[in-house]
Amino acid sequence: MEGAALDRQRSVLIVDHSEETREVLQTALQRRGLQTFSASRAGPGLELARRHHPDLIVLDLELDQANPEDLSAPFAEQSRTDHTALVMLGTVRRDRAGMPEGEFVAKPYHYGPLIRRIEELLDTMPESFGPGA
Amino acid sequence: MPSLFVIRGNDQGTRFELEDNTLRLGRDASSGIQIHDTEVSRQHAEIRRVDRDFAIRDLHSSNGTFVNGQRVERHRLSSGDHVQVGSTLMLYTGPSDGPEEDLAETISIATVQQTEDHSQIIHSVTEEEGSRIFEPGSEFLQNPWLARARSNLQVMYRTALAVSHTLDIDQLLHRIMELIFEWVDADRGCIMLADPPSKTLVPTVRRTRSGIRGDKRITISKTILDYVTERNEGVLTSDARQDERFDAAASIVQMGVREAICVPMRGRYDVVGAIYIDTSTPPQDVFRRGGTNKFTEDHLKLMVAIAHQAALAVEDTRYYSAMVQAERLAAIGQTVATLSHHIKNILQGIRGGSYLIELGLTEHDESVVDKGWKIVEKNQNKISTLVMDMLTFSKEREPDLATANVNQVVGDVIELMQARADELDVELHWQPDPAMPDLVFDPEGLHRAVLNVVTNGVDAAGEREGSGRTAVRSAYSAEKAMVQITVEDNGPGIPPDQIDQLFSPFVSTKKSRGTGLGLPVSQKILSEHGGRILVRSTPERGSRFILELPAVMPQPDTHATG
Q: A17 vs B512: CB contact, 8 Å cut-off?
């Protein structure tokens, strides 16, 4: 929405099994001038991330039948490669080594604060790291 | 699977399955086997797989690791070993022996013609007669030793019977007491059980021979009780003065003689209590018989044996109840976890819908309000389904019978499920039997039953990522007076070890999506109709559910009320 962000449209990838969550996030984020991609499964989600290099990934940790740790690992790696932010919905077990870097939002969450946080993260991201730049 | 089962301590009733090759045992939360016992070190011991069995190694713990009562540094465990750390006692069960052979192959029951064995029955004994082996035949009466041995054996036989048929400790102890009174000439008796945490003995059963006068109160010397429970030995006592220096006769004339037997109830793991009996001989009898010997060493020995039997039964009963209790708690935990997860998801949906409504109102965009409202509505339905499922499951109900057509009911379900099938990219196929007549059943109930099974079928087929297919067909058989609704999917199938749990409530394999109520509810509805659900599943190939419903024709003259 701000002028600085206009030279390249920022994008968010939403990977969540719930159609409702995807719809709510997409609607809200698109109204803020963000481009969105969405997937209901980890595999196609990862593919979208590799193809479009979104600036931020929202990942539901209760996808498929996988446990949250295994699920988040490839996304965490992708976000490291692309220098993009990762917001995970749900929790992982604390005692596991190699907890993925990123933000955790415990369920059930409120959409208002979640969307504000997504915007903040996008705003503080260094422009030059955007892969499209 | 090899396991450690906690039979005493704060974690009583917990079973630790030894899945990994190496497991830490300790108080620390990161331990694979976490023991809630302050006498256990944070990292107390390590359990490591050795071939098929496991070995335990003490990790320099403060209070040591004990196997079968011996302190060990390292010990290879074998089935039945007792492992003690702090005040926690565990029972090790090893892997089952060897690959399971089919006993049917090694033992065959043959008809006479098939076998070379020409055995004949030469004598037969009924169960009732078997118990009479203890009745002394006349030829034995002359031999007092044999007669006594027989009588002792009979007491043990009856004790074994008494302890083998109960899960009620009080009842069990009363029976034991009764048995003792029938067998020995005791005046008073009591059984004390050790209160598990404090180990103090609490009187549990008491009995007085009818017609016994005198002191109602049984006073037992603490010294004797301590001796019995600590040293694990039974004692026979008498207050007759043994010491020649006393004038024995004088004291007996006043008081008579009191004899008592006190034995420990020693089980497999611990002393669980004590049994005490006593008898008084009045002064005149002492003189007439020239002494007292109502209680003999034989009585003592037999009492020790009886007490041991009783203790084993008490322990078994306690561990059994602890296990049942632990399982019940686990089931409640599972139920609450599954339900709260499901409710949490619904709440999440409602929050999403409300957020969109709010957004739409602020920005005066009706289309967003509309979107939000649809989401809220959908989640209202979810809550309503959940509540209906819970109600259906929790109470006994009669099907609400009406005349309807199964094809219509299933067709409605298919229509309802089409959206979900599209979302998951699943081809939903429906093949109704054109010859399906109108029948009497509970249409709403059947709708719910079919809906749950079709939902599962579509969800399972959805795992196929694009090539999923769920086929539903109905079939009516006039001959069998039966309707079959078959739901077949090409999903990943159900692992054989989960088939048994398929109809257990609140056990969902669908993780975030399932309430664990779907199939149990479907099954309940079908069985209320006198029908059933058949399942066949091949891992990697898919599953087939058949809902069988008895076909009840409507009465031609009267319409069933609906």
A: yes
